[in-house]
Amino acid sequence: MAMDDSHSSLFNLGILDTLTQDELHEILDSYEAFCNATQSLLGGAGDLSYGAQFVSHVHTLFMELTLTEQDAAHWVYRGEGAANIVVSYTGSSPSYIGKVMRIRKSPRKASALPGVRNTIALSLHERLIWKKVHELISSSDKEIAGQLYVDHVMKPLLGSKYVDAGSHILVTKEFLMTVEKNVDSQRPASRVDVSQVDKQCDFALLMSDHSIFPQGIETLALLLTISLFFI
């Protein structure tokens, strides 16, 4: 799966803080193997015999940071709105325990869900308003711009204690297809009729599950939708 310029500001490296020591060592080992293969390929005086090894290490390193079809069984339906489906994690990986994932939807018909597939991030007027927030105006995807807005505008205003911007994570098409197959039976029929998982989108938004509190504490969860550019 290719990553283009639209992903230049997509991923929050803070997600690495959630990895276990074993997972970090596995990634570092893969990266070391990748560097060794790269050095051998570049220093091989035209010898391309290291090419297959190089490609293999690139693939391994990429997949270790990507949710694949095998991971889909651990994500279950939580709810949805007009533009996204939310699934929660039920597996045992420390990286995802206590997390939910917001997956973009797309309309089943071109006339359904107007605006859901609008990926133009900012208008010219909005770029003028937020010209001092470089990360925001450089984004070419509306959903990415939304996450960056929360991270670079709302979080400084309200404080990191009260704002969770989440972080984007790579997902494969097979992961999205399997998640959709698993959750469709739990979705309201009215939602299924007009929308589906956007399987052309290769990322999802990972966030803490704020409906979970320590045992014995009553839970009240509210979803506050803040206008992206006007408060």
UniProtKB/TrEMBL annotation:
Enzyme class, first EC level, given as a word: transferase
Q: Which Enzyme Commission number(s) are on file for it? A: 2.7.1.158
Task: Reply yes or no: does the keyword Metal-binding apply.
Answer: no
Q: Where is the signal peptide?
A: none
**Gene Ontology terms: biological process:** inositol phosphate biosynthetic process
Output the Gene3D superfamilies linked to this UniProt entry: Inositol-pentakisphosphate 2-kinase, N-lobe
The molecular function terms of the Gene Ontology recorded here are: ATP binding; inositol-1,3,4,5,6-pentakisphosphate 2-kinase activity
Its biological purpose? Phosphorylates Ins(1,3,4,5,6)P5 at position 2 to form Ins(1,2,3,4,5,6)P6 (InsP6 or phytate).
User: What note about domains is in the entry?
Assistant: The EXKPK motif is conserved in inositol-pentakisphosphate 2-kinases of both family 1 and 2.
> What is this protein called in UniProt?
Inositol-pentakisphosphate 2-kinase
